[in-house]
């Protein structure tokens, strides 16, 4: 009974403290980026505002129990698809709701800010897939290659619908996140490796072939599959940024110069010297590397390790399959975001426009991650209710 009444004992305090740490890092890094004069907005204040909204989202999401999210999962998935579909029909002119940014029609331009529906669709996809997998295992308690293949097809269809809309925008970064989430869920779902190995090998082969063609057969891809020249520029500037000093190459060169110039201990807070475009959003890690150095950047990476470690511990603690799959999807989403964002700033991976979770400025990213983390809070918060429900009834 005490476990049901005592809020403080049921709240996931380690996760709460980690979010506070990310808030501090985010505000310090964004203020260091000194973007107020360039964009005419105080992004520190705006980011703090988004964090307040994110806190309300987490509190609201935490209120409901995991079983309720299981029942709502397909409705939320359908709502996310509706938002992606509606975006296609939004007017595209300057100042309109559906105005493209950098050639991508991915945002609703609303009075409160730019809202990117794909950020929320990631969590909706995780919920729907977790429900699908758990129901499949309930129905087919005896596994076989046939049932595993059927499950793989179900997940594939659930993935293909939102992926088609996001690729149409086009948004390569978000598309890769969805693929990473799906891959993690397929592995955690326990599908036989006799099926997965050939499929993963096939994807790796196709991916390698596309990368080779993107380097050596660009005209063929452009004429046959409709690839755009700017998409090839990202590959070229990634492999040899100093031969493409404009556009994507310039972003990468300045990012490498900023991080490298920070050396071990950094230049100090507000002592940034290298100008990096979009340094308050996608390239916030370059600011951290320059001003806080290798040690500061390593501490930020350690924060993410602690976050992933804690989420993994929570996943192992939960006994309900639906909760386990949801947590696994969230771990995959955050891990891929961190790996891709940091990787693109140090030339380990191509630039794809993926923000650094909880640190980069951006309302959609922060609210989308808050929605996902709120589910983890909910599962941990209501876990003791399930574990001690029989004892509580006896006490009453």
How would you describe the overall organization of this protein?
By secondary structure, the chain is mainly α. Helix 6 crosses helix 7 and helix 12 runs parallel beside helix 13. The N and C termini lie close together (8 Å). A two-stranded antiparallel sheet has the order 1-2. It is 73% helix and 2% strand.
Question: How would the blueprint of this fold be written?
Answer:
Layout: H1 2-5, H2 7-10, H3 13-33, H4 36-39, H5 43-63, H6 66-88, E1 108-110, E2 113-115, H7 117-139, H8 145-168, H9 172-188, H10 193-216, H11 218-225, H12 229-239, H13 248-261, H14 284-317, H15 321-345, H16 363-381, H17 383-387, H18 389-395
Antiparallel strand pairs: 1-2
Distance between the termini: 8 Å
Count of spatially separate domains: 1
Low-confidence parts lasting 5 or more residues at pLDDT below 50? 385-396
Shape: globular
Number of helices: 18
The major sheet is characterized as: 2 strands, antiparallel
Mean pLDDT: 86
**Rg, nearest Å:** 22 Å
Helix content: over 70%
Strand order in space, largest sheet: 1-2
Structural class: mainly alpha
The arrangement of helices and strands along the chain is HHHHHHEEHHHHHHHHHHHH
Beta-strand residue fraction: under 5%
Number of DSSP strand runs: 2
Précis, in short:
The chain is mainly α and 396 residues long. It starts with a helix and ends with a helix. It contains 18 helices and two strands.
